[in-house]
Amino acid sequence: MTEQDKKRIGKFLSLVLRHDPDKIGLELDENGWANVKELIEKCKKHRFHFSEEELIEIVETNDKQRYSFNEKRNKIRANQGHSINIDLALSPVKPPEFLYHGTATRFLSSIMEQGIVKGSRQHVHLSKDKETATKVGARHGKVVILTIMTGKMQKDGILFYQSDNGVWLTDYVDVKYISK
């Protein structure tokens, strides 16, 4: 399987596991898990052909670690970034004192007025380091990195979660917790 094939299939997996499982008639359980064999079969009907071994390779080599298998490797799900309503069954965890949010400069005035909103996603995504936040923000234009006072947020009763791939999640970041 070429890197180009992995990328193409990975993008399609992201679509069906995070946003539109109905596109291929796939059913996710309440926690976002899909049956691996069913996923492979339904993807084939939509011209995305890959074996179980190739799916394992895609999951293990994905640079963003977007997907996870259950222990038996018979179920797969996206780690975060869903626009569909699922329960990742994550427990609240104490965040570090500061986390980072990478965005494009064109969004800065809106963020400084409204805070960071989740939009169509289930959570706001925060990064543990500036390097990761820079990569995230670069996808949207000229990058600006915002420092988020997550320790203060947590002390103020705001909950944080951490996905299986290390992305920090929360519902909203008020302007008062953002530093440029």
From TrEMBL:
> What's the short name of a Pfam family annotated to this entry?
PTS_2-RNA
Q: Which organism is it from?
A: Dysgonomonas capnocytophagoides
Name of the encoding gene: kptA
The main enzyme category here is transferase
Membrane-spanning intervals of the chain: none
The record, for HAMAP family, names: KptA (MF_00299)
Q: What is this protein called?
A: Probable RNA 2'-phosphotransferase
Q: Which family does it belong to?
A: Belongs to the KptA/TPT1 family.
Show the Gene3D superfamilies listed in the entry: 3.20.170.30, RNA 2'-phosphotransferase, Tpt1/KptA family, N-terminal domain
Q: What does this protein do?
A: Removes the 2'-phosphate from RNA via an intermediate in which the phosphate is ADP-ribosylated by NAD followed by a presumed transesterification to release the RNA and generate ADP-ribose 1''-2''-cyclic phosphate (APPR>P). May function as an ADP-ribosylase.
Q: Name one GO molecular function term.
A: tRNA 2'-phosphotransferase activity
Cite a single GO BP annotation.
Answer: tRNA splicing, via endonucleolytic cleavage and ligation
> Which InterPro entries does the record associate with it?
Ptrans_KptA/Tpt1, RNA_2'-PTrans_C, RNA_2'-PTrans_KptA, RNA_2'-PTrans_N
Alphabetic keyword roster: NAD, Transferase
Give its E.C. classification number: 2.7.1.-
